[in-house]
Write a structure and sequence with these properties.
With about 325 residues, this protein is mainly beta. The chain is about 5% helix and about 35% strand. The chain has 2 domains: about 110 residues, Macroglobulin (MG2) domain (Immunoglobulin-like); about 180 residues, Sandwich (Protocatechuate 3,4-Dioxygenase, subunit A), CATH 2.60.130.10. Bound molecules: fe (ii) ion (FE2).
Length: about 325
Amino acid sequence: MKDSKNRRRFLKNVMLGALSVVSVPISLKSLPEKVSKNVNSENCPPLTLDAYGQGPFYTANAPNLQNGQLADVNELGQRIQISGQVFNLECSEIIPNTEIDIWHADDSGVYDNVGYNLRGKVFSNNQGIYTFETIKPGFYLNGSTYRPSHIHFKITPPGFSSLITQLYFAGDPYITSDFAASMNSGVYDATHRIIPLSLNSLGIWEGTWDIIIDGNGISLNTDYLHLDKGMIYNVSPNPFNEIIDIEYGVFMNSDVKLNVIDLSGNIIAELSDINQNMGKYSVSWKPESYIAPGVYFLTLKINDLQVHYIKIVKEI
Ligand SMILES: [Fe+2]
């Protein structure tokens, strides 16, 4: 009886979003181990400046990205997805809400210096994780030589200074001849800003780039986390009024339950209770009017193991 009531409430309240848009960033499987111990400096390289600095093509006030998409679906070029986690300088804490301002050239190596195409901002979420999808930037001439494919970043942890740098891709034929990308020591060392890309089953090249930067972090208690199985990427807005959008990832084919519970542990809404393949999913919850304002928890269970939860706040 209760189940059927919940089911009706579920069907009434939930609007399923687009499914399996992108696959799971490969870095996430190693997160619990990473945040549960202090990583030594060898594995915790601070983010470095790029020798070319900001370059001539920065435009301020780029928009916040919608759904992590920097490149429109019609944008020409090879789709890539970059993901990572923002850490403090000791790698002992993660830094949520870090502003990551991104810009790069299009497939033919041209910047949009009039509008904001291939320009936008993402923010690390409350696990310090960020992700965005775009196209691999094209080469362009810098004097007589081509610059390697690169993405520009201006990264600003809350209350701290911005750091401006560039990201490159392993195997790029122009890295060794590039003034900035070839630097392998000193303050402009690009070694840890050259990342490999690997092709996933959806035809998207994925890369992982953790950002280690000066900022105020928070500890992430991993006792209740099994982030190798699945996780909630993002909830927005939070606090919310009418509707809250939820993005989560499933890292293996499994029975997935995504519930909203109150402070007493009562299930308020079932947002997912089905078998799902590995992938990234989105769902929206629009509570009925009798759901009181206050604190709730969004819980993700994979094969009945609670792998993650996030506090959400419904406002009046
Ligand atoms: Fe550039």
